[in-house]
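Design a sequence for this backbone.
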């Protein structure tokens, strides 16, 4: 990764903005916590117990975690606290990394033995697993049992310790946060709470249907659009790209698979296309990536040399470099995309960054490399998938429910909103509202009289 300061860059003089949140005094934040949020801090800091806490989207789970983390840093050595979440975006929200990255299991494309070897090779991962005392995981609902079991086995082996590392066996306390912070509108909050349980009455259905109307925001601001499929996200992003003046460049990924070329050598009974599709499903790296100057992008890689540059970091394409020439306004027609290196100004990094290609790979269960993709770790960011939006607070929001394929998606999407005045809902259908019976049963068992 090359980072350069360009003399003519209008951004280079900007100072790194330190988030006010980060410099706020612990005592000041503590005063804002509700009684139930304070109870969580007490259980961890004073009672030194492990706990599972939950509550509706916007009740301040991540807010409480942010405070708890600061508090823990003031009590324990920093390297003994693991701050993680299931997705990179959710992790950014609490100043941590993904659980997968933190524990060294990556995208789980390696066998048990290979994962152990790779952790042993990376001293920093080995050391942090050995030194870990407290592990924090936000958005835990997106981590499945298989992943937990794998992490458990790996860490028990690494630490030569048979005690469960992460598993509900070690949860000692359960707390449910009831008070809502993200939204103020009582009618909306009540409707959302019902949606969470898979219920919707006629009145709220009518209310939601009426949320499908044009909204004009001040200063020409545009809402963030949520979709349930990546295909819809891609179409939205392409339309936005077309609205920006200038030439669009297509960056084609270099894909390779074990089934490519000589078919007689292919003992794996999977076609090249099948393997590419397999890779496609597990990576955000695009086969055909379209970029232009002025486009808003997300970074898709965890840079090992720079922990500010992680999967989910937001930025804008401010130019391209071709050889020694830097283009900031436009790129002449004769210049081809394969010679171009995107220059990106990321929100949290003062200097501009030249983004280089990275390699994604997938191995089969025996650890044999099956397929790889070499591509720029960038993606357009105008539309977001509901899956990725978990944990976000989105004041100006537009949700398209057309292709919703999982019942919980509706609640996740709706609960991102702050005020229904700034929420547009398209293609809503009541039959999509369902809740997982197992989850309701679990919640009823653990949190009596909540529902
Ligand atoms: N005690 C508090 N005082 C002031 N604001 C708060 C408090 N708790 C939460 N908030 C605010 O409420 C909003 C929602 O909080 P947060 O994102 O932590 O909710 P969450 O429960 O993690 O939601 P989700 O389930 O969507 O991840 C944020 O804007 C946060 O700053
Ligand atoms: Mg959260």
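Sequence:
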């Amino acid at each position: 990764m090359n980072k350069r300061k360009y003399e003519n860059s209008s951004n280079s003089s900007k100072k790194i903005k330190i988030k006010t949140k980060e410099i706020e005094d612990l005592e000041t934040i503590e005063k804002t916590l509700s009684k139930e949020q304070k109870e969580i801090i007490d259980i961890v800091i004073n009672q030194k117990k492990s706990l599972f806490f939950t509550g509706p989207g916007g009740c301040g789970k991540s807010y409480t975690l942010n405070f708890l983390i600061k508090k823990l840093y003031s009590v324990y050595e920093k390297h003994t606290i693991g701050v993680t979440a299931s997705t990179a975006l959710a992790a950014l929200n609490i100043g941590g990394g993904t659980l997968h990255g933190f524990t060294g299991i990556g995208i789980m494309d390696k066998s048990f033995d290979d994962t152990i070897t790779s952790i042993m090779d990376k001293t920093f991962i080995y050391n942090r697993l050995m030194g870990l005392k407290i592990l924090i995981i936000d958005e835990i609902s997106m981590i499945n049992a298989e992943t937990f079991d794998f992490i458990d086995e790996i860490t028990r082996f690494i630490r030569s310790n048979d005690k469960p590392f992460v598993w509900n066996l070690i949860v000692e306390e359960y707390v449910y946060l009831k008070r809502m912070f993200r939204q103020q509108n009582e009618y909306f909050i009540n409707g959302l709470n019902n949606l969470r349980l898979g219920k919707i009455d006629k009145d709220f259905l009518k209310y939601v249907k009426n949320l499908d109307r044009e909204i004009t925001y001040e200063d020409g601001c545009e809402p963030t659009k949520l979709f349930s499929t990546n295909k819809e996200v891609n179409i939205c992003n392409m339309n936005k790209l077309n609205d920006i003046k200038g030439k669009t460049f297509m960056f084609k990924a270099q894909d390779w698979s074990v089934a490519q070329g000589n078919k007689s050598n292919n003992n794996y009974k999977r076609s090249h296309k099948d393997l590419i599709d397999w890779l496609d499903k597990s990576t955000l790296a695009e086969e055909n990536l379209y970029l232009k100057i002025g486009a808003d992008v997300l970074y898709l890689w965890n840079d090992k040399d720079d922990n500010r540059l992680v999967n989910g970091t937001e930025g804008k394409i401010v130019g391209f470099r071709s050889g020694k020439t830097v283009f900031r306004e436009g790129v002449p027609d004769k210049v081809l995309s394969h010679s171009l290196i995107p220059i990106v100004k990321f929100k949290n990094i003062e200097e501009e960054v030249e983004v280089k290609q990275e390699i994604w790979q997938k191995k089969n269960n025996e650890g044999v490399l099956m397929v790889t993709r070499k591509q720029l770790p960038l993606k357009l960011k105008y539309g977001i998938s509901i899956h990725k939006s978990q944990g976000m607070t989105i004041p100006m929001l537009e949700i398209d429910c057309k292709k919703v394929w999982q019942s919980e998606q509706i609640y996740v999407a709706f609960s991102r909103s702050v005020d229904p005045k700034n929420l547009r809902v398209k293609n809503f259908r009541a039959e999509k509202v369902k809740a997982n019976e197992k989850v309701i049963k679990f919640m009823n068992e653990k949190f009596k009289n909540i529902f």
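The first helix runs from residue 20 to 23.
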